[in-house]
Amino acid sequence: MSHRAEWGRAGNAGVGLLLGGDWVVVLAASAAGIEVVQRYLARRRFPFFYQQVAGGLLATLLAIGVAALSPASTSLPAPDCSKS
């Protein structure tokens, strides 16, 4: 693995921590590897637009997975409909 990818992963984890993420978010951000996918597509000569689409898709799917597996529930409480 190149030093560039290592710094990218450290940066991803730092951003996850700065945005208030818990340890699950930080681990997922450091393991995301979005820059690896984008560099692979660049080597395969995909247009820049599609590289960005692939990175965004990976980030979105990762965020959905972390939200589903996160120990802290972020759902809103159910409304109390018994009061009229």
Strand content: under 5%
Distance between the ends? 62 Å
Number of strands: 0
Elements, N to C (H/E): HHHH
Multimeric status of the protein: single chain
Largest sheet: none
Q: Strand pairing plus helix content: what structural class?
A: mainly alpha
Structure write-up:
The protein has 84 residues and is mainly α. The protein has one domain (3-69). The chain is built from four helices and no strands. Helix 2 packs antiparallel against helix 4 (48-69) and helix 3 (34-43) runs antiparallel to helix 4 (48-69). The protein is elongated, with a radius of gyration of 17 Å. The termini are far apart. The model has no long low-confidence stretch (mean pLDDT 74).
Write the layout of secondary structure elements.
Layout: H1 3-18, H2 23-31, H3 34-43, H4 48-69
Helix pairs in contact: 1-2, 2-4, 3-4
What keywords describe this structure?
84 residues; mainly alpha; 4 helices; 0% strand
Question: Would you kindly provide a brief summary of this structure?
Answer:
The protein is an all-alpha fold and 84 residues long.
